[in-house]
C-alpha cells in the first residue's frame, strides 16, 4: 500500500527542489533534476512513492498551469509574424523532417498508426524554455538565430498540440484511411475551435484599435472584488477555452494554451501583470510543476528498456533529424554555417511539452511503457546535451 497523498506530495516536493537545484548548479534545466528525482523515488529504484488517482488529479492541475504559463510568455503577434516568409519555411522544415523521420521508425517496428503518430509528435517538438535558456545564457536574444529558433519552437508546439488534439479521439487500431476519415470529422470541430479563438482574437484587436483601455475595467473589477480578482479572471478565461476544447473532444490543454495566448499584457497595468505572473510562477514553478515532472519520473520503468536497438534508433533520429532540419532550414534562409549549426542545436532540445504529450498519450493508453520510457529518456538526453552542443558548434570558427 502506498503513502497517503499529502505524504507523497511532501516527498516529491523535497526531492524535486533538491535535485532541481543540483541540476541548476550543473547549468542544466531544473526539469531534468525533477525527472531524476521521480526515477529515484519510483519503482525503478527506491519505490517510496506510487502513482495514484489522487496524485494524477494533482498533476492534471499542474499540466494546466504549465501550459497556461507557456501561453502567457508568448505574444500572439509573434506567432502571426513567425508564420510569414522565411520563418514559416524554417518552422515547417524544423517540424516535418523530424516528424516523417520518426514516422519511418514507427513503421519499421510495425507500430500502429496512433503509436507512430505519438512518436512522431514527441520527436518533432522543440522545448521553448530550453531554447530561451540557451539564448539568454549566451546573450543573443536580439539576433536572427534567436528570432528564428523561438518562432520555430512556438509553431512546432502549436502544430504538435493540434495533431494531438485530433488523434486523442481516435481508437487504438486504425488504418491510415480511417485516420483521414476521422480527421475530416474532427477537422470540423477543430475548425469551430479555431474560429472561436480567431473571433476572440479579432475582438480583442478591435478593442485595441478603438483605443479601449481594457486595463481600466479590470482595475475596477479588482477594486470591487478584491486583489485576487484579476488572477481569478485570467484563470476563468482560460478555463472557458479549456472546457470548450474538451466539449469538442480535444484535450483541455489545447484550449488552455490558446486561451492563455489571447491574454495580452496590455490588458493589465505593467505592475499588475508582473504581480499576476509572479503569483502564477509561485504556484506553478514553485510547487505544482516540480510535482508534475517528479511524478512523471515515477512512470519511468527501467525494466521496460529491453529493446536497445529501438532506444538507440529513436535517440539518434531525434537528434540527427532536428539538427539536420535546423541546419538545412538555416542555410536555405541565408544563415552562415556557424549560425545554422547553432540553430539546429537549439531546436534539438525537447523537454516540457514533449514530456506533457508523452504523459497524456501514456495515460490514455495510446502508448505502452516501453515507448513512454524511451520518449522520456530521449527527452532527458536531448535536453541535457543541447546547451553544451550549442556552445560547441556556435563558438567554433566558421
Write up this protein.
With 398 residues, the chain is an all-alpha fold. It has a single domain, classed as Na+/H+ antiporter like fold (Up-down Bundle), CATH 1.20.1530. Helix content is 78%, strand content 0%. It contains 17 helices and no strands. It has helices at residues 5-25, 30-41, 53-72, 76-82, 85-108, 113-124, 128-137, 144-167, 176-209, 214-225, 229-247, 252-261, 270-298, 308-332, 337-347, 352-363, 369-395. Helix 6 packs antiparallel against helix 16 (352-363). The protein is globular. The chain starts with a helix and ends with a helix.
Task: Please give the structural blueprint.
Blueprint (H helix, E strand, L loop, with lengths): L4 H21 L4 H12 L11 H20 L3 H7 L2 H24 L4 H12 L3 H10 L6 H24 L8 H34 L4 H12 L3 H19 L4 H10 L8 H29 L9 H25 L4 H11 L4 H12 L5 H27 L3
Helix pairs in contact: 1-2, 1-13, 2-13, 3-12, 3-13, 4-8, 5-6, 5-8, 5-14, 6-8, 6-16, 7-8, 8-15, 11-12, 14-15, 14-17, 15-17, 16-17
As a percent range, the share of strand residues is under 5%
| Elements, N to C (H/E) | HHHHHHHHHHHHHHHHH
Individual helix count: 17
How would you sum up the global shape? Answer: globular
> What would the CATH topology be?
Na+/H+ antiporter like fold
Helical residue percent band: over 70%
Amino acid at each position: 500500500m502506498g503513502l497517503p497523498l499529502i505524504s507523497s506530495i511532501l516527498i516529491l516536493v523535497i526531492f524535486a527542489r533538491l535535485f532541481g537545484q543540483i541540476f541548476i548548479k550543473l547549468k542544466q534545466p531544473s526539469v531534468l533534476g525533477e525527472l531524476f528525482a521521480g526515477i529515484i523515488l519510483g519503482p525503478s529504484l527506491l519505490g517510496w512513492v506510487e502513482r495514484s488517482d489522487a496524485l494524477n488529479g494533482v498533476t492534471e492541475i499542474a499540466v494546466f498551469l504549465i501550459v497556461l504559463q507557456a501561453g502567457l510568455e508568448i505574444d500572439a503577434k509573434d506567432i502571426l509574424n513567425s508564420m510569414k516568409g522565411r520563418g514559416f519555411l524554417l518552422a515547417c522544415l524544423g517540424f516535418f523532417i523530424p516528424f516523417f523521420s520518426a514516422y519511418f521508425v514507427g513503421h519499421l517496428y510495425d507500430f500502429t498508426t496512433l503509436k507512430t503518430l505519438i512518436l512522431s509528435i514527441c520527436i518533432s517538438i522543440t522545448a521553448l524554455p530550453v531554447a530561451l535558456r540557451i539564448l539568454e545564457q549566451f546573450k543573443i536574444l536580439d539576433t536572427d538565430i534567436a528570432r528564428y529558433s523561438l518562432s520555430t519552437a512556438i509553431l512546432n508546439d502549436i502544430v504538435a498540440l493540434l495533431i494531438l488534439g485530433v488523434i486523442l479521439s481516435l481508437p487504438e487500431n486504425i488504418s491510415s484511411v480511417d485516420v483521414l476519415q476521422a480527421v475530416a470529422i474532427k477537422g470540423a470541430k477543430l475548425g469551430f475551435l479555431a474560429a472561436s479563438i480567431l473571433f476572440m482574437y479579432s475582438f480583442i484587436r478591435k478593442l485595441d484599435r478603438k483605443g479601449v483601455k481594457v486595463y481600466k475595467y479590470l482595475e475596477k473589477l479588482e477594486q470591487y472584488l478584491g486583489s485576487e480578482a484579476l488572477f481569478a479572471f485570467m484563470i476563468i478565461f482560460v478555463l472557458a477555452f479549456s472546457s470548450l476544447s474538451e466539449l469538442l473532444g480535444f484535450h483541455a490543454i489545447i484550449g488552455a494554451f490558446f486561451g492563455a495566448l489571447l491574454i495580452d499584457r496590455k490588458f493589465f497595468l505593467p505592475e499588475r501583470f508582473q504581480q499576476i505572473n509572479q503569483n502564477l510562477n509561485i504556484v506553478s514553478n514553485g510547487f505544482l510543476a516540480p510535482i508534475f515532472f517528479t511524478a512523471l519520473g515515477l512512470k519511468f520503468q527501467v525494466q521496460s528498456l529491453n529493446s536497445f536497438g529501438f532506444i538507440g534508433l529513436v535517440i539518434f533520429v531525434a537528434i540527427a533529424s532536428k539538427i539536420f532540419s535546423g541546419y538545412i532550414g538555416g542555410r536555405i534562409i541565408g544563415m552562415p554555417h556557424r549560425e545554422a549549426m547553432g540553430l539546429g542545436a537549439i531546436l534539438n532540445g525537447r523537454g516540457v511539452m514533449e514530456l506533457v504529450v508523452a504523459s497524456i498519450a501514456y495515460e490514455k493508453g495510446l502508448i505502452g511503457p516501453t515507448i513512454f520510457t524511451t520518449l522520456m529518456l530521449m527527452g532527458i538526453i536531448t535536453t541535457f546535451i543541447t546547451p553544451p552542443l550549442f556552445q560547441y558548434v556556435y563558438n567554433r570558427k566558421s
